[in-house]
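User: I'm writing a tutorial on reading structure tokens. Could you give me a worked example: one chain, its sequence, then its tokens, then a sentence or two explaining what the tokens reveal?
Assistant: Sure. Here is the example chain.
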Amino acid sequence: MTDISIIVVCFRGWERLEKCLDSLKGFNSDRFTFEVIVVDNHSSDPVIYDFERKYSGFRFIHNEVNGGYANGNNLGCRNAGGEYVLILNPDTEASENEIGKIFDEARAHPEYSIISCRQVNAKGRVTPSTGEFPGFANLTGFQRSVARIFRKASPTGNMIADQVIFPDWISGSVVWMKRDLYNRLGGFYEGFWMYYEDVDICKRISTEKGKVVSLNNVTIIHNHGGSSRVNIRTASITKTEVQISRHLYISRNMKGIERSLIQIFLVVNNIISGALMAVAGLIFFFIPRLFLRTTIFLRLLGYYTIAAFRNSWISPRSVIYSKHNVKKT
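And here are its predicted structure tokens:
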């Protein structure tokens, strides 16, 4: 059996994808065997065939739809043959040595259910790749900023200095799991089109008393936004999906009055704060970043209208959207 199946899901973003695959093409290790599976999420661009020719040693799968990050990775994992799966964003660059470290840790600690690592951008600056499960205390950016201030002031441990940390969740940009466990859990939940699928699978693992792990002695380059910040239209779609996926996560992982209150809070907060920014975007429409807020607000209003009508928090872009019409408020 192959040791590692490396899954890379892409939607255009060719320059960064090339850097990612170049880094993997250079692997020549005696420590582990591996395969690379590239899932093209219906890019509808013939450039992907140039990649197939250039990286002939890798396997390419053409998704029939752009079913999102969860759907693309699940498709790749269904076609994988490795003992472990390593899911990488197409805007990451990994070295053979760092992947070997994860492999050694996974073999030494079979109790680790899901593993990620320290991530830095091209300038070497650490980028956030772990976090706490969503709750009343960290729903908004302001709340999370306040929490970070108090966390820095707390004398209880140094998460950066510790080689192994156990956060609530790890980012989906670098995910290492036993393939059998990934399949048993059903992979990423495909109701998420983009974002929060990583938080959701970590929540399921934690519920089963599994260990969520991040290795600070392993570093992978991650340059954010390869496929999600191409232009205003794409950015407005992906930023709206952040809000949609947060609602879906709350729907799936919280219960009773807490779930209802959080959903109401998010809707009210998004509408009030979004309306203010949308007005500013209309006034200063010639400033792309401000006008982006207007398009996000309109998309979010459309989502709320459809969600109420269909009785479902699932993203309309999800491949399972048409199969579900039950909303948990």
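What the tokens reveal: Residues 153-159 have pLDDT under 50 and may be disordered. The radius of gyration is 20 Å.
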